Structure formats: C-alpha cells, structure tokens
C-alpha cells in the first residue's frame, strides 16, 4: 500500500501534482457538489519543500474569497490511507520528524509554515499579508491558512497517499473548520519539549535553502563546509520572537487538544531525533495495522466456529480500546476485541521467532480476584488462540496443570478446578481439530511429544504449598525451541500450607519466571484499590509500546479512553504517576497518593492482594481529595 521510501526531502514531497506559475482555485458550489465531492482546482502552485522561501520559486496566488457562498467539501473516508497531524511548540521537532515520517510512510507533507514562507518568498498578496504576522511571531489570520490547507488536502496526491499535517490547526477556529469539513486525522501526535530546550533549538536552527534540510549549529551541524556556507537563519528564530511564538502556542494548545483528545498521543520530544522517530514509527505502524484489521474484519464473511465470526473491531467507535469495561458480563463485541488483540500479538511474536511468551490480560471477566471472573471467557480465549495456530497447520498442545499433591484437589489452584474437563468437552470446530491439531494435556516434561509445535499453558500458577515452576521449567527444557505461551500466569511464590513463604531457590524461580517475554499486556487501573471507577488502562501488544490510557467521562454520559503516554518498557511507578499528573517524564520523585498505589498494583505484573492492602493503608484521605480534583 505504501510507496517505497525515497531518499531526499525533495522527493519525499511529491511533485506529481501539476503545478503552474500562476494559479487560482475555485470552490464547487453546493448545488454542483455531491456529498463526496472535493474542491475543484483549475490550478494550484505550491512548492512543497521545507524552506521554499529561500530557493527559487514560482509565483503563487490563492484566489481566496472568504465571502464565497460555495461549500468546501473534502472527502476523507475511513478507507483512505494514513492521516496524521503533528503538533508541538516552535522547534519541538515537527519539521525534523516530518522528514523522517514522509521518508518511511510516503505521506504528503503539508506544513503551513512552509506554505506561508513560499507565499512570502514569492511576494504574493497572501505572502505580503502573512509576512507581518510571521515576523512578529503571531498567527496568520485563520481564513488565509485554512483556505491553503483545505486546498492542499483536496489534491489527488493527498487523497491517494495520505497526509501529514504539520502546524495546523493552531487555533480552535482552525480545528473547527476541519471538523466541519469532516477532515479528521487517524492520530494526533504532540511533541513535548521543555521551554528552555526549545529556545536553544530555535536560536541554533539553520536551514539549507537548496535542499530544505533542517540543521542545528550544535545538534545537527552541516555535513560539509559547502553546505555550511549557504545555510540561512529564519527571520523568526530570534530569542524574543521564539518566546512570543511559544506564548501563542501555549494559549491555543488546550483548545485544540479538546478536539483531538481521543486520538492524541504525547511523545517526549526531548530525546534524540532517532528515538523520537522510533516512537512515532511504532505508533503510525500500529494505526496502519489497525486500519487493515478493521477493513479485513468489515469485509470478512463470518464463518461459524471460528474467530473470524467475531463482530468487526470497533476501532472507530472506541478509538483505541473498548469502553464500558465495568459492564459485566462483557458484551460479545468487547470479548471479541480482546480475543483478537491477544491473538494478533501472540501470532506476531511467534512469527518473529519468540519462544517464551506470556499474555497478561486482566479485564474483569479474566481477573480471578473479582467475583465477575468467568472461566468461560478464559476458555474461549484459549480456544481462539489454539485454533488459530492449528489453522496454520501447527499442532497445539493446550495444557492445564493438574493436582500437585495428595488427595482429590490438593495442590490444585481453585481457579483451574474443572478446567481440564471443560477443555475436553468444548466445541473445537467442525473439522475434527481436537485429537489431531489440538491436544489437551497437563504441565510437565512428560507432556512434551515430538509432534507438538506450540504449547499453550492455561493460567499456570502456584497453589498453596506447591510451586508449579519446577514442572514448568522441565517442560520448557523439553520443548526446546518450540513456542511456549503462558496465558495469565501467576508465578509469584505463595505462602506454604504452614503459612511460611517458600524461600528455598526463590530467586532462581523468580528469575526463571521473568525469562518469559510479555507479548500482550492489558490491565485496568482502579482508584485506590477499589474496583470502581476504572481510572485508566495500560496496554501493550507486541511489538508495540506500552500505552497508558486515562478513562474520561463525557458530558453525553458516555466515556472514552484517552492515551496519556507511551513507553518502550513497562512503565515504572513514577512514569505512571507523572503521566496521570501531567508532569514531565523521569521525575525523581517517589510514587505517592493514588497513582502511586495504582501503579504499584499493576507494575508487579501479577496480582498481589496482600501488598495491595498494605499499600492501600498508606493512601491518605488528603491525597484522595487532591487527586479527585483532577477530574
Ligand atoms: P512554522 O514554520 O510551523 O513554525 P513553528 O511551529 O514555530 O515550528 P518550527 O518550524 O519553528 O519548529 P519545528 O517544530 O518544525 O522544529 P524543527 O524540526 O525545525 O510556522 C512559522 C510561522 O508561520 C508561525 O509563527 C505563524 O506565524 C505562521 N503559521 C504557521 N502555521 C500557522 C497556522 N496554522 N495558523 C496561523 N499561522 C501559522 O527543529 C527545530 C530545531 O531543533 C532544528 O535546528 C533541529 O535541527 C533541532 N531538532 C529537531 N529535533 C531535535 C531533537 N530531537 N534533538 C535535538 N535537536 C532537534
């Protein structure tokens, strides 16, 4: 779907659209346009290059008629290619990242700063008007910029290749204009950089008028003396003007955020440009995959007894993760979302050659600590994963641990009692998969046969007085390089029947448990140890980043999950606290209050009721009030 990458910024900004020196555009009138009609252009001329104002440029003229009764229509359906908005303070690195994004994803880069500089350089009517605002570090009037952007968006290349909007919208009026035209991005990326760094970046910025490449005297010096000699400084890059631009950015940022909060992702822009790009790359790739998944599920013909009979993934409805997770029982749509989410992550991991995997999914119906726990949901999840591998021709052994001690149920975790029988009696599809491609077994070395390709272990866990890890270890050794997938394992040592913790070999056991790589993680975050209300969620689906969401009540009575931050590793307590409190990353402070409690619960990766309770006791009424006021 995507064009192959291209090597220079010139070529990343497609010139396929016919350009001519003098151009005008006309709006289709309402009567002559259908609902999907787009702007009609007689001609358009924009040199889409960073810093076009310093290079040779054609004259441009925008025939803007603000009194026109015509209606702008830009058609943007969900099946179109990637649509991205990037925002951030002056010098947060938008342009730098856009170069990299365009190179990788082939999107059409629309930078209002570049468009305006082109007009200024060409000394057009618009350029002359815009110049005084730009030089003063102020925003150019909305109607000028909006007309430029909507015109550019409606061109064929943007529709076909997708677009990357940089520096627009910058006011609530601009955001509203796009909403009215039904122009919405798939994702709204915000680069977050501290003020003092921004000023240094602006003052040190240099631009190459020939290539449009962005340099910095210290951070990214030019490659050769020849380039160095021709570099120029932007007129609005003085310290005073940067401060004015920063003030304006801050005044407008919140208003725009409210329009895009459900698709907003904040990225720490104070990292090397490669690291920042890695994060953006991972997010955009995820959006693309979700889009493909959505289209596939919408187009798929339901098949009975297979996971493909699930309802379409409602990404548009949920914009990320499902809502109403405290409605028990979960709807089929919600269960299907999670089954599919886990399945995709597991398959990607196995396809990438990972062999020691764990899935931790903690929605209420899969949380044995809650009285709404449903063994049926766990079994359904296992069946979907197992059948999917079997569909690929792999022989899957689904293993559930048996009793590990004397007597009927002694040593059997209560959560698993009867599970084996349920698995035996379950419907494994119409094609006789059970007994051939699917086998039911136990946990232990003796269960590993030569023909098995994949092992799925159902919630392996320690029982009072017994530790499953030794059996698990022997089994994985026997499995060798074949994938072993633990679904909701609970491998922490528990107190023995005597009430004494098993300490012998504990370190080694925990080290072994930690050797399983997380390929899927989903955990709801609750307020101060209660199970209501849900405050947010942490999700990770291999190979993507951990995503931290906050649940937000909407005036309409509905709710939504807003992404607060992403992390390459499972976030620390401080990371989570800071994200919820809106603080910059890597603060040196210790976790405290509610968020400290929340994060300490889930960061362990396994429920630990005892420590939760003692942590709960530390939460003071004062901190509760303080944090409640955040909402
Ligand atoms: P515009 O050109 O959009 O300026 P801006 O938003 O202020 O952003 P900048 O271009 O200054 O910075 P950037 O985030 O692209 O950073 P860059 O990658 O270059 O707009 C200019 C003017 O046009 C506005 O002031 C306004 O008047 C007008 N305008 C534009 N859009 C408008 C709208 N919608 N409505 C009304 N008016 C509008 O990087 C900066 C420097 O940092 C470089 O030197 C770079 O090398 C360096 N750098 C980048 N990334 C890193 C990193 N990770 N680490 C270290 N250094 C880095």
UniProtKB/TrEMBL annotation:
Residues 296-321 are annotated as: Disordered. Residues 335-577 form the DUF1995 domain. Belongs to the adenylate kinase family. It catalyses: AMP + ATP = 2 ADP. InterPro entries: Adenyl_kin_sub (IPR006259), Adenylat/UMP-CMP_kin (IPR000850), Adenylat_kinase_CS (IPR033690), ADK_active_lid_dom_sf (IPR036193), Chloroplast_ADK (IPR053021), DUF1995 (IPR018962), P-loop_NTPase (IPR027417). It is an enzyme of class 2 (transferase). It comes from the Eukaryota. Residues 297-312 have a biased composition (Polar residues). This is adenylate kinase.
């Amino acid at each position: 779907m995507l064009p192959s990458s291209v090597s220079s910024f010139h070529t990343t900004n497609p010139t396929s659209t016919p350009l001519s020196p003098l151009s005008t555009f006309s709006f289709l009138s309402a009567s002559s346009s259908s609902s999907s009609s787009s702007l009609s252009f007689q001609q358009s001329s924009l040199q889409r290059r960073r810093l076009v104002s310093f290079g040779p440029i054609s004259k441009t003229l925008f025939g803007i008629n603000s009194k026109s009764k015509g209606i702008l229509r830009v058609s943007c359906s969900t099946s179109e290619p990637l649509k991205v908005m990037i925002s951030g303070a002056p010098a947060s690195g938008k342009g730098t990242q856009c170069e990299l994004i365009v190179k990788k994803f082939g999107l059409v880069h629309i930078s209002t700063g570049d468009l305006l500089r082109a007009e200024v350089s060409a000394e057009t009517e618009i350029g002359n008007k815009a110049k005084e605002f730009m030089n003063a570090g102020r925003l150019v009037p909305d109607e000028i910029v909006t007309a430029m952007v909507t015109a550019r968006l409606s061109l064929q290349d943007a529709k076909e290749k997708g677009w990357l909007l940089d520096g627009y919208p910058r006011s609530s009026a601009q955001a509203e204009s796009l909403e009215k035209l039904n122009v919405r991005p798939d994702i709204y990326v915000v680069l977050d950089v501290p003020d003092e760094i921004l000023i240094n970046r602006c003052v040190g910025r240099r631009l190459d008028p020939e290539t449009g490449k962005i340099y910095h005297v210290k951070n990214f010096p030019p490659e050769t003396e020849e380039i160095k000699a021709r570099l120029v400084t932007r007129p609005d890059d003085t310290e005073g003007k940067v401060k004015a631009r920063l003030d304006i950015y801050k005044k407008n940022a919140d208003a725009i955020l409210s329009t895009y909060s459900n698709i907003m992702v904040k990225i720490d822009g104070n990292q090397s440009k490669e690291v920042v790009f890695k994060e953006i790359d991972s997010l955009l790739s995820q959006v693309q995959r979700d889009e493909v998944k959505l289209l596939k599920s919408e187009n798929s013909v339901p098949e009975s007894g297979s996971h493909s009979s699930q309802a379409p993934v409602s990404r548009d409805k949920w914009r990320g993760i499902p809502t109403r997770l405290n409605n028990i029982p979960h709807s089929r749509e919600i269960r299907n979302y999670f089954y599919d989410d886990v399945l995709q992550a597991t398959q990607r991991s196995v396809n990438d050659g990972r062999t020691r995997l764990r899935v931790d999914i903690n929605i209420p119906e899969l949380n044995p600590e809650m009285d709404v726990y449903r063994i049926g949901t766990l079994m359904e999840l296992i069946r979907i994963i197992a059948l999917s591998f079997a569909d690929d021709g792999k022989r899957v052994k689904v293993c559930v641990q048996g009793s590990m001690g004397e007597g009927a149920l002694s040593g059997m975790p209560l959560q698993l009692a009867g599970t084996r029988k349920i698995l035996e009696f379950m419907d494994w599809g119409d094609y006789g998969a059970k007994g051939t491609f699917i086998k039911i077994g136990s946990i232990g070395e003796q269960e590993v046969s030569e023909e098995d390709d994949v092992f799925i272990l159902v919630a392996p866990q320690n029982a009072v007085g017994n530790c499953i890890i030794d059996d698990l270890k022997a089994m994985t050794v026997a499995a060798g390089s074949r994938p072993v997938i633990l679904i909701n394992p609970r491998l922490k040592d528990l107190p023995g029947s005597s009430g004494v913790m098993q300490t012998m070999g504990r370190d080694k056991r925990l080290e072994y448990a930690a050797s399983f790589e997380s390929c899927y993680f989903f955990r709801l975050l609750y307020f101060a140890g209660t199970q209501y209300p849900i405050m947010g969620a942490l999700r990770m689906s291999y190979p993507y980043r951990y995503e931290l969401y906050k649940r937000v009540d909407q005036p309409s009575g509905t709710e939504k999950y807003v992404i607060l931050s992403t992390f390459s590793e499972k976030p620390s307590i401080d990371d989570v606290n800071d994200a919820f409190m809106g603080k910059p990353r890597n603060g040196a402070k210790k976790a405290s209050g509610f968020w400290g409690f929340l994060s300490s619960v889930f960061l362990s990766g396994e429920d630990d009721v005892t420590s939760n309770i003692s942590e709960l006791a530390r939460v003071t009424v004062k901190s509760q009030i303080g944090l409640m006021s955040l909402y």
